Amino acid sequence: MEHLDDQERRDVWQTIQDALFNDQIDQFRAEFLELHPYDQAKIFEEVADDVRMQIYTYLSPDEVAEVMEHIDYEEIEPFFSEMDPRFAAQVLAEMSTDDAVDILNELDKNKVASFLTIMDDEAAEEIKDLLHYEEKTAGSIMTTEFVVVKAGMTIREAMLHLRQEAPDAETIYYTYVIDEDKRLVGVISLRDLIISEEDWFISDVMSERVVSAPVGEDQEEIARMMRDYDFLALPIIDFQEHLLGIITVDDIMDVMEEEASEDYSKLAGISDVDSPDENAFVSAKKRLPWLVILLFLGSLTASLIGRFEDTLDKVAILAIFIPLIAGMAGNTGTQALAVAVRGIATGEIDKQGKLKMIMREAGTGLITGVSCGVIITLVVYFWQNNIYLGLLVGLSIMSTLIVATLAGSLVPLVMHRFNIDPAVASGPFITTINDIISILIYFGMATAFMSLLI
Fold first, then answer.
1. Strand-pair partners of 214
2. What is the mean pLDDT of residues 14-19?
3. Which pLDDT tens digit goes with each residue over 112-145?
4. What is the rounded CA–CA span in Å between residue 103 and residue 75?
5. From residue 381, how far is each of 236, 320, 392, 454 by CA, in Å?
6. How large is the average pLDDT for residues 300-317?
């Protein structure tokens, strides 16, 4: 099944639409169900509401469920609002439990209660068990649809059990082994099950070195674990090591995208990345808090320059270099910030050590500061024919770059130490802070050089 581009999808949809409008149900189903669920989801998102309502009548809850699993959860509320409540409850019941929970977390609480009341008891109980876990934890993204075998089973018994349970399981590449108390004691791959002798016991073949995660673990740490171990699935346990569920790699890909988007928005100084569907007022509401904070910090920069008004009156040419020094401080601080935030997010800083990272950034700041300082000293000297002005600007650039680099790396580390998301040390924030530092350094040195400049 090939991936369709937008034009191909429109062409296929035209054929499907003709069958739909001519009430050719069999042809519609044959054409529509031939598509990959991702392409089906894209069609759902693009068609008019009345067309979508007609499609619901031609598809089963199970078929619609597969489509809904490929629609962004944050955009899915209108689809479940337009469905008949009983049909919507059946769709949720047919979905993977973790996907159903993600969708219900986006819906109104009264709707959630209504859907859970309508759907069959078994599906409702499984969903309720996951709904009470805190968002962004392992429990909130795990699925309970997995296959387990007992250590005392033979390979033959395990294979028979696997055949019975596989249709409803999220994945069968790993089969987890539990003891009589439902504690996780091992794992066996599908490959090992296939190549083992039928009369061997699971306990003789399984691996006892099982990497698992607690149910309350942060989803970002889960993503890091699965990346480090190259897992397709990760078992989730409670404090007594009872197996509660598994997290599969497809869910972790969604988590990684979500976390990356969240960190990027914070680095940009906004609470969340704007959606193309949002209006100007919603976007402005997200951006205003940071901008107001930065406005007051910027006012502090302006007031600092005002305090050095006498210095500027005596040597007016000093004003020319303010944007240069402030801009360089902001640039180098943002670079160091990006390195520090990424190191914290990926866990690299914990492996290398914070002191090592700080020393490296200090060295980087020193090298870049000296290099840029020497260059600008020569430029200013040949431009203004004043060696003292060149030395002032050069030393200011050098000092500013060293301090700004250290600030860019230290601020996220301090925030992380106090359990504050380091991404909130955003680019605009660190740039404004470094503006203040650079102005203090520049005019402080200018005051010291005053007798040589006049």
1. 237
2. 80
3. 888 889 988 888 888 888 888 888 899 988 988 8
4. 10
5. 66, 14, 10, 15
6. 73
Give, to the nearest 10 degrees, the angle between helix 219-229 and helix 249-267. Answer: 120
* Three-class HEC string of the chain: CCCCCHHHHHHHHHHHHHHHHCCCHHHHHHHHHHCCHHHHHHHHHHCCHHHHHHHHHHCCHHHHHHHHCCCCHHHCHHHHHHCCHHHHHHHHHHCCHHHHHHHHCCCCHHHHHHHHHHCCHHHHHHHHHHHCCCCCEHHHHCECCCCEEECCCEHHHHHHHHHHHHHHCCCCCEEEEECCCCEEEEEEEHHHHHHCCCCCEHHHHCECCCCCEECCCEHHHHHHHHHHHCCCEEEEECCCCEEEEEEEHHHHHHHHHHHHHHHHHHHCCCCCCCCCCCCHHHHHHHHHHHHHHHHHHHHHHHHHHHHCHHHHHHCHHHHHHHHHHHHHHHHHHHHHHHHHHHHHHHCHHHHHCHHHHHHHHHHHHHHHHHHHHHHHHHHHHHHHCCHHHHHHHHHHHHHHHHHHHHHHHHHHHHHHHCCCCHHHCCHHHHHHHHHHHHHHHHHHHHHHCHHHHC
Alpha carbon 82 to chain centroid, angstroms: 30
Euclidean distance between the first and the last CA atom of the chain, given in angstroms as a whole number: 77
pLDDT at 28 over 70: yes
What whole-number percentage of the chain has pLDDT above 70?
87
Q: Tell me, what's the pLDDT at 274?
A: 47
Confidence band (pLDDT; 50, 70, 90) for 214? very high
pLDDT in tens, 357-402: 888 888 998 999 999 999 999 998 888 888 888 898 899 999 999 9
Tokens 């099950």 belong to 193
> pLDDT tens digits for 77-126?
889 989 999 999 999 999 888 888 888 888 888 888 888 899 888 888 88
Q: How far apart are CA 289 and CA 281, in angstroms?
A: 13
Q: Is 446 exposed, middle or buried (0-12, 13-18, 19+ CB in 10 A)?
A: buried
